[in-house]
Amino acid sequence: MSHQFIDGTWTTGSGGTADVVNPFDASVVDRLDQAGPEDVDRAVAAARAAFDAGPWPRTPTAERAALLHRVADLLQRDKEQIARTETLDTGKTLIESGIDVDDVTNVFRYYADLVAADSGRVVDTGLSHVVSRVVHEPVGVCALITPWNYPLLQLSWKVAPALAAGNTVVIKPSEVTPLTSLKLVELLAEAGAPPGAVNIVLGDGRSVGSPLVAHRDVDLVSFTGGVATGQAIMRAAADTVKRVSLELGGKNPNVVFADTDFDTVVDYALVAVFLHAGQVCSAGARLIVEDSLYDPLVAEVARRAERIRLGNGLDPETESGPLVSEVQRTKIEDYVASAVAEGARLVAGGRRPDDPALAKGFFYRPTVFADCHTGMRVVREETFGPILTVERFRGEEEAVALANGTDYGLAGAVWTNDMATAHRVADALRHGTVWINDYHPYIPGAEWGGMKRSGTGRELGPTGLHEYQETKHVWHNTAPSAQRWFKA
Ligand code: NAD
Which residue, judged by its Cα, is nearest atom 13 of ligand 1? Predict the structure, then answer.
């Protein structure tokens, strides 16, 4: 077993082993060695040496871009195998996993093209003998720490721009779902990444993530995960003044005005929250509905939620897979109990499925609570599971106040056929992404990230590249002459 990739070589970690579990039936998919403290040190040392004296940061951008395009080709070559692995590891459906591989491919291509066109800029100084250039350089050694819900996708949003910009990286995937991250590292090596440019170490947050964040030789930490972990990382990074980018959780409002098309909004309300069993940072977990539409919408969403077909992600008939782990299911059951205790009205789900074929997996029925309000824990906190809460509003002002009445600010949506209302509400929402009459789409060219406690910094788009770049101003006086500032 050799699952740590350090300085261009697969080596065996000294931190014992850990099983990777299939959430569908709790079977063991793989057993992987874990990094010990010395492996973390070796990985950072390799990335440091590769940054300070290796070829990657000095490789012309066109060649770096060509490598990223090769990775994109390899992702497509191995798409089926990668998608299957992601489904075995996360429980999501094969269709979703396949979409993830395509999206990851597009991210590599986007950053390849963007960096190739990034030549800095010349600033007009007004002085004919002075040339002023603003150039972009890599930041250094980047620690990339990712969660378990979109393992490959979240890693690609970091590793593609980081490498495009000329950084070297140490990857720490989630201990729950590391398999496709290992595969991506294999593909990066196959595409020709030089030794030390890309390293991966496996392990949990305490034994591997934390030492990486504290390490003196790491210059930047890019993290996607929960708020509490993000806060700990921000604190730890302060000691060495690292650059930190945090993509944290969300509690995302889906605001529905009564003039919208009923059947369409029911469909989207369901996919907004129940995609990947609700384990999506931007899940539309709060449905906020105008008074006159409230009762029929609650009834239809509840009816349709009861019909969602749970099953094995590898089965094409499956509409939603299990939760990722027993830990996650226990959290969901706790939220359901608290919602009931606080007076929310259960209209769908609220239990494990009865189907004996699903008994070994970490399944939970899609759950809908009506008559919710922001005083309830289930409305305030990110549950990260298949729970939809429904609130009622009267008038645009109340809709906006409810949608913004959260500590989070990742994403939200507004549904209406009145475009003036749509854009007024979109402008008023304090969330990093706002969809009008849609839910979930994102594109490599448009920034993604959160306001308030949903994080700092942005991924995707040009900003997602700048996160991994230092900006340097070079002033060249082509005709210096003595100025006699101080007397000769
Ligand atoms: P998590 O915070 O528990 O773990 C995320 C990663 O951090 C894992 O790799 C973990 O091992 C590591 N980690 C844990 N403690 C650490 C420490 N002290 N120092 C360094 N690393 C540490 O999150 P999770 O449960 O894996 O993922 C779910 C969370 O991720 C949700 O809150 C979700 O909203 C968020 N998320 C956000 C986005 C986004 O784009 N904003 C995308 C996906 C997931």
Answer: 205
**Which residue of the set 142, 281, 381, 391 is catalytic?**
281
> Could you give the C-alpha distances from 60 to 116, 164, 305, in angstroms and in order?
9, 10, 52
4-249+450-474, which class in CATH? Answer: alpha beta
Cα distances from 264 to residues 225, 257, 369, 399, in angstroms, run: 31, 13, 20, 20
Q: Is 383 in the pocket of ligand 1 (CB under 6 A)?
A: no
- Measure 173 CA to ligand 1 centroid, in angstroms: 9
Atom of ligand 1 nearest to the CA of 459: 40
Domain 253-436 has CATH 3.50.50.60: no
Read off the pLDDT band of 483 (50, 70, 90).
confident
Q: Where in the chain are the domains? A: 4-249+450-474, 253-436
* 381 has catalytic annotation: no
Sheet (strand 4-6) strand order: 9-11, 4-6, 198-200, 168-172, 141-145, 220-224, 243-247, 455-456
- Verify whether ligand 1 is closer than 6 Å to residue 247 (CB atom): yes
Give one DSSP letter per residue of 183-214, joined into a string: HHHHHHHHHTPPTTTEEE----IIIIIHHHHH
Mutation test residue for ligand 1: of 44, 145, 273, 331, the one with most atoms within 8 Å of CB: 145
CA distance 235 to 239: 8
Residue nearest ligand 1's atom 35 by CA? 225
Angle, to 10 degrees, between the axis of helix 179-191 and the axis of helix 151-164?
Answer: 30
Is 247 a known active-site residue? yes
Chain centroid to CA 48: 26
Residue found by looking up tokens 């549950």 in the block = 383
421-452: pLDDT as tens digits: 999 999 999 999 999 999 999 999 999 999 99
Residue identifier of the C-alpha nearest atom 22 of ligand 1: 205
Q: Give SS3 for 298.
A: helix
The pLDDT-based confidence of 487 (bands split at 50, 70, 90) is confident
Q: Does 450 sit in the ligand 1 pocket, CB within 6 Å?
A: yes
